[in-house]
Design goal:
30% helix; 4-stranded mixed sheet; alpha+beta; Immunoglobulin-like
Length: 237
Amino acid sequence: MPTDRNPCARRIIMFKTILLLALAASTAAESLIHEEALDLEVEVDGHRELFALLPGTSCPTGHKCRTRHHTAGVSPMMSSLRDNLRSPQKESWHALNNELTTTVESNDYCSRRAAMARAAGLAAGLAIATVNAPAYAAEATTVKMGSDDGQLVFAPKDVKICKGDSVTWVINKAGPHNVVFDVDAIPSGVNQEAISMDDVIGDEGDSFTMKFDVAGSYAYYCEPHRSANMNGKLTVA
């Protein structure tokens, strides 16, 4: 058992150990009976990727699959990961190790979140190019326009996201509303008009989505209800 008192560090070290043992076991099982299975070919962000189908599963109609020999007693995901780690082009093990190290050592929440997402993708057998795509680890946050009890507020009022994430403002109650950013309270160089709504929306469920790539603090308000102090704050880390 690792002696590091950091619980996150212990979990990652344990994960690495289990992964190595599983890979060693799957390699030792090479002499066992191999079952024929299929890999489904799909396009991911312009790249062709293979996703393992369970042994005995037929290729879906209208799709292309490749034949794969799966070792009996070894999970399809582990077989796929083992094959990826053996590929000199992908260097999956080194990438996975780096992502897990970042997850433990980084003091930045966004860096840890992105590293963990990429590590999970690599462990599932995805290609390095796929998990390194800018949008791969991005997340979406929803802000209600008008509280559930009809108050003229953004809920939540303060939101923190990471660069590359998106925010969707959804009409909830007491519309119409819009989202207008304060030109004097956004990061330098950001186009205030480009990130603000041109008009108001009023029907429940209507929404407005914007992606944010520049770090900093953003203050915004609902123009029709600014006098009622319907303001919000967005922090992009």
